[in-house]
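Let's practice the habit of predicting before peeking. Look at the sequence and jot down your guess about where helices and strands might fall. Then scroll down.
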Amino acid sequence: MTDISLRFEPPFARIVLNRPERRNAITRAMWRALPAIRTAIEAREDVLVALVQGEGAHFSAGADISEFDEVYRDAAATRDYGDTVQDGLRALMDLDRPTIAVMRGVAVGGGLGLALACDLRFCAADAHLAITPARLGLVYGHAETRRLVELVGPSRAKDLLFTGRRIETEEALAIGLIDRRIETALEETVLGYARGLAELSQVSIRGGKRAVDAIAAGMSQETPGFRALAEAAALGPDFAEGRAAFAAKRAAKFAFRGPTAPLAHG
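Done guessing? Here is the structure:
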């Protein structure tokens, strides 16, 4: 078993952190694996939702501190490591289908950053979260800081970054850091939600993901790319099937499985 694995269980893919003895601390090699994982998922038409989770009792305790002497040994190593982490997070953010972080136990530091890179975060009620660079003398990277600000706003983001404090799930839900707080049956709840997504139009879901991400990143006015995305959906087979199913009072059988690209922000 590798330290990070990709398991296909159509219509799902599971990205699994496989270091339970280290509370799934994330190594440089694990960050480096994420772009290839994205490519492998996008190559599969039968995979409609990606789940990101940790093996065992925890999501992730963050970056593997045992590597720090090596990855921060000098300026060149520091730059290379930072690029590796950011490339990994962006690969997960840019995946063309929905991603859900399945969070139990601890989700701390870089581990929480990985969860922030997902579209949604479903969290066991007894989990706890923290953003801890201030406890180490580091600064959270751009991708994870941007997502944090988008989710909780600038003031709350500063509070969490300044203090490095433990965040209980009730507060995390209230401020928008997580999307669901699950008292029991976390896995079953996530799978039920994901199955619902798999039954709907992937034109709508993937297009909606691209649209929201572009607007969150600064697209303040409609662009030609945005208009083309909406018009292609209106002229496509999924909308025709949706209309026909509605008229016939039957469940729609949506066929679209194609890729979508991120929208340009300008």
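How did you do? The chain has eleven helices and nine strands.
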